Model the fold of this input.
Amino acid sequence: MHITIQSPADLGLVVRTVRRHSKVRLDDLAATAGVSKQFTSDVEHGKPTVQLGLVLKLLAELGVSFDIDIPEEAARALATVRATAGVAQRGSMPADAPRRSRPPRSKKRD
Done:
């Protein structure tokens, strides 16, 4: 079944409902997904600043796919960009792709 997610609260409701329907405890889901219990609770309560990568881990653990519906023109452009960039269909970077490093943080002064 496809559900439209329009807010972090919508996503949290889906995660909580699927988890409970699967009879999985919150701490057990967190442990098997490799995230904290607090993080899992934050997702379920619709916290808008959670890390997307960790949310995807939770969804995968629950067997929930994450699909994005984009306009057809954008899909064609994306296919072209992927083909020319040599990026795999799943969106991962090739092993030999250069990685960007972050500039060092400046120390805070009191």
Residues 32 and 38 are 14 Å apart (CA to CA).
